[in-house]
Amino acid sequence: MPDDGPVVPRYGLRSLAEVLPALLTALGVPGPAAGPPLPPVRAAGLLLIDGLGTDLLVRHATDAPFLAGLPDAGPLTVGFPSSTSVSLATLGTGLPPGEHGIVGISFRAEDDELLNSLRWVAYGRPQPADLRDRLPPERIQPMPTALERAAAHGVDVAVVAPRDQRASGLTRAALRGGRFQGVHALGDLAADVIGALTGPGRRLCYGYHADLDTLGHVYGPGSLPWRLQLRQIDQLAATIAGHLPSDALLAVTGDHGMVQVTRPYDADTDDALRLGVRHLGGDPRSRHVYAHDGAAPEVLAAWRETLGGDAWVVSREQAVADGWFGPLAPHVQHRIGDVVVALRGTAAVIRSVTEPGMSRLPGQHGSLSREEQFVPLLLAHTPQ
């Protein structure tokens, strides 16, 4: 049984929320200074590698010699849950989940229906409905983004990401404010980031690459396909850095790490995990458990007894008090489960019926382990 404690995110000090504010300060955008001090620059690029955890990069440094050799202003904690949509909203707004309100891959948004925040559809339906009209991303996440702040102060802002993310719910919620440039593969991702940082005036470019996370889910983190993809990403970063203007900076970070799951609990077939539960959100490594009226104490006790030392199982009130979500805005409280579950070690709470595809994946993330929480902040620039 694992005996390490949870890694509580260091919001306001050493988290993803401080990355873009630090880059904006380096660009001379007025506002409160936050995050690690960075040198003044005219152009700043931020390359987000989905699934690039600090522990994984250290363990496989020989596959990524360029990245491993860069100065690291981290490690940073990503926030809770350590899931992509949560992390991108934290990065994009400069705020913790308790303030921006994206508190899980799936969570109760404005009504009793769960929102899949990664795809912005109704969660758990065979043919999920697009919710961008009924639950506009700008209403679910109403806080200004760092990209909007930069653009308002005259910075040329670009978002370089896969074409299918243009106008997606998550892009609108977390990364609005930039000129979107859709890409097909590594080649045009590198070219478009380089192009966005080249030219006159102050410039900010956010670039995103997803495939390391995909291969970690499918084959496991550290598998041969994952390592070979890491080698391609190392070349991607080296290529961009090699074409940086002399007055530009490239920062490389991740949105979470990943663990290999070997101890699954099935919430769709285990009666103890179903009793008193109205809705179950989150993902296999972090769950929001919404109880029927009056059933929260019994649900909390049942989940604690069933999962034992394989999870931190707490009430909503304790999760908030312990700082898992950071400061909490009033409209966000009901989005958090009556019971909040963060898995430990190699355990996961799967849903074999509702989430059949996700439940079969060996690589998972979302919890408060160091492997999932810590990501690097690697810096590449040409000294003046």
From TrEMBL:
Pfam annotation, one family: Phosphodiest
Protein name: Alkaline phosphatase family protein
